[in-house]
Amino acid sequence: MSERVVVKPGATVAVGERPYRIHQILDLETVLAQDPQSGETLRLKVADLQPVRLRAEIPLLTDAVELAQVPDGAWAIARQRFAAIRPLLALSQCTRAQAAECARLGGVHTATIYRWLKRYQHSGQLAALIPWQHNGGRGHSRLSHIPPNLVVTP
Fold first, then answer.
1. Same domain, 18 and 73
2. 146 inside domain
3. Rounded CA gap, 54 and 123, in Å?
4. Are 75 and 123 in a shared domain?
5. Considering the domain boundaries, does residue 1 fall inside one?
6. CB-count exposure of residue 31 (10 Å: 0-12, 13-18, 19+)
7. Residue 25 belongs to what domain range?
């Protein structure tokens, strides 16, 4: 079964490995789309459009955690994040100034708004905005239990 492609203004699609943002639907077979890297606007055939693959560096919380186990505080943070990006979701295209204003109102950096927006648009679920729990990090063990017979060599 093939994956569905959302064909509407503002949607991100791919042709091959290259992403495009749909600007306008010209007819049933053609869309006008912009290459976000070059800024070039092209006519693309709807038959050639594919869904954009999410890169591996953006993990989905719903894959790793049972949502019923998420604490109420984490859901409250997710709702605050959603409130911060909500004005941008209704737009077909988001300008940097609009994102910066949402960031200012939310008390976060503009790049954070873009990350939240990308996570939410990919999944379409509030759960995508739940804060991640980091395990380990610099100076912390990433092992939940260190076996007593473990031999560590330099």
1. no
2. no
3. 10
4. yes
5. no
6. buried
7. 12-51
Do residues 39 and 77 share a domain?
no
pLDDT by position in tens, the chain (length 154) = 456 788 888 888 888 888 888 889 999 999 999 887 777 889 999 999 988 765 444 444 444 456 677 788 888 999 999 999 999 987 878 899 999 999 999 899 999 999 999 888 887 788 889 887 666 667 666 666 666 666 666 6
Chain centroid to Cα 30, Å, comes to: 26
Q: pTM above the 0.70 mark?
A: no
Q: How far is CA 67 from the centre of its chain?
A: 18
Reduced to 3 states (helix: H, G, I; strand: E, B; else coil), residue 59 is coil
Six token digits for residue 82 = 């959603």
Encoded tokens for 140: 């912390």
**Helix count and strand count (H, E) for the chain:** 4, 5
- State how many domains the chain has: 2
68 and 42 together in one domain: no
